[in-house]
Structure formats: C-alpha cells, structure tokens
Specification:
This protein is an alpha+beta fold and 286 residues long. It has helices at 3-9, 33-39, 62-78, 106-112, 163-175, 179-182, 234-243, 249-261, 272-277, and strands at 18-23, 26-32, 46-48, 53-55, 89-92, 102-105, 115-127, 130-138, 149-151, 153-156, 186-197, 200-212, 226-233. The strands form three sheets. Strands 7, 8, 9, 10, 11, 12 and 13 form a seven-stranded mixed β-sheet that branches. A four-stranded mixed β-sheet has the order 2-1-4-3. A two-stranded antiparallel sheet has the order 5-6.
Length: 286
C-alpha cells in the first residue's frame, strides 16, 4: 500500500450513515442511524429526529450533561450496544482550548463520534549509522489493534490533564521514561482525521512530539500494553509502512507527518502535495 493510500484510510467515512450530534446548536459528533433510533428511548436526554440527535436544551450545565450522558452510556453498555466501559473520561469540546461542555467515558466516544484528542511521541535516536526510531509492538491482549506496531509513547487525552501532563504519564507507563527526559519532548504539530473503525467513528486530533533519547536508553513497558520494543533505522520504518500492514493506522499517519517535516519526503515525490493535505480532515464541519 502506498503512503497516500495509508493516509486515505484515515479519512474514510460515509456521512450518509450518520446523524449529526448537536449540543448548544453546534455539531459535536456523528451518530449512526441505528444508535440514534435507540436514543429515542432516552427522550429526557436527547431530541432525536430523522436528521439529527440533539442533546436536550434543558441540560445547561457541565454537571447535568455529564450525569445524564453517563447514565445513558451505562445502560447502553449493559445492553451490549456499546461494547465496554473504559473508566476513562474524555472532554467533549470542538477545541482543546475551550471549556468542555461535558465529559464522556472513552468507550462511548467513537459511538457518538465526538472529537477526541491524543498525544503521539516519536522516540528518536541519533547514531553513527543514522537516525533510528523506537517502535512498540502492542500487546496481543489489547482489544484495539492487538499486535500492531505503535509509537514508543501514544495515548488518548483524558479529561483533567494537560497535554504535556498526559505525555509524561504515558511515557512513564508505556516505556518507563523518567519525567526529566519526557518533559523535554518537542511539540511538532498535529494531525487530524475522521474515519470509520470497528470501535466507532474516530474523530481525532493527535498532538505530535519528537523526543530524542540517548543510545544507552532502553524502554521498558510498565502497564502491560506493549509486547516489546524495537529500535529501527528510519529506512526500515519507511519500508514497513509502505509494504506491510504492520503499523496501526493512525501511527502511520503520524510517521508520515514526521517524514514530511524532516525532509525524507520532498516536493519531487509524486504524492507530496496530497500527503500534506492528508495530514488533516478536509471538511470544515465538526
């Protein structure tokens, strides 16, 4: 699969299969028609029409919205409509820099198509042989993308932490990187996408970071979510992205973002302009 095909997989969804999820007269997600029909059962929380699902305008505070949404989600999990309760809360907002309207369990985020946030860290090593990148293999017991290749550090952005605080937490849990090292990670931008995945409609904004590590450092997983780590030359990473399906879909996007930034891809490459365009969603609605 070419790099541009990798990018396209991060942007595939069929809007006709969804209804906008509206809060305060603004679109904050998208819900399948089947789930929208089920949400009619909760008419004190949602106003469901053939064209949209709107949160009741009687819910006017962060606390009331959170409480009522949580109650609905727990029912949906109990009935098996939403597969699991993650016990991790996501802020519901169309910009990380705005106050959230409410918070929602991570397990439901894809089913409501809300904008979710996360951090992805390129773990980089400068060596005599050239640039190398630390790659993690996801645990075979993870419910999402088991055994696929990932960054040394990556994770969803929970409610109540800053982006940097989350990066430091994830770095310690996933790779045993001390705060004194992880806090030096350099912010390098963001990628965004919306695509249909087995766990729902992923409407993600991922903040990207570069972290240069000493050659003597060897990551150790602390939370059981990483099977093993590999330190690969950049050329091997490019080959595996291009010629295998080993990398998790959004990890490929972040790595392509890195290849563009660092000049491994140039304007003379046929798909260069399309790759740059593909670093972000193309629509302007939420």
């Amino acid at each position: 699969m070419s790099l541009i095909e990798r990018v396209k997989t991060c942007h595939f969804w069929q809007p006709e299969n969804y209804r906008p999820f509206i809060v305060n007269n603004e679109i904050h997600g998208h819900i399948t028609h089947n789930l929208a029909t089920k949400l009619k059962d909760f008419n004190s929380v949602f106003n469901v029409s053939s064209k949209s699902v709107a949160l009741s305008d009687k819910l006017t505070t962060f606390e009331s919205r959170t409480r009522e949404i949580e109650g609905v989600i727990k029912v949906l999990v109990k009935e098996g409509i939403i597969p699991r309760w993650r016990d991790e809360e996501y802020a519901v907002t169309n910009s990380w820099h705005l106050s959230p309207l409410f918070k929602m369990d991570r397990g439901a985020s894809g089913h409501f198509g809300i904008r979710s946030y996360g951090v992805h860290v390129n773990g980089l090593v400068k060596s005599e042989e050239g640039l190398k990148i630390w790659i993690g293999k996801r645990s075979l017991t993870k419910p999402n993308a088991p055994g696929e290749l990932d960054h040394i550090v990556a994770g969803g952005q929970p409610y109540g932490l800053s982006i940097l605080e989350n990066l430091i937490k994830e770095a310690e849990e996933e790779a045993n990187i001390p705060r004194a090292i992880s806090s030096a990670a350099k912010a390098t931008g963001m990628v965004s996408y919306r695509c249909e995945r087995p766990d729902g409609l992923k409407n993600d904004h991922l903040y990207t970071y570069d972290l240069y590590l000493d050659e003597s450092f060897v990551p150790q997983n602390m939370d059981g979510e990483v099977e093993e780590f590999y330190l690969w030359p950049i050329e091997k990473v490019i080959d595996r992205i291009t010629n295998t399906d080993d990398f998790k879909y959004n990890v490929s996007l972040v790595l392509i973002h890195f290849l563009i930034r660092e000049g491994y891809l140039t304007p003379d490459d046929d798909a260069y302009s399309d790759l740059i365009k593909g670093m972000h969603r193309q629509d302007i609605t939420s």
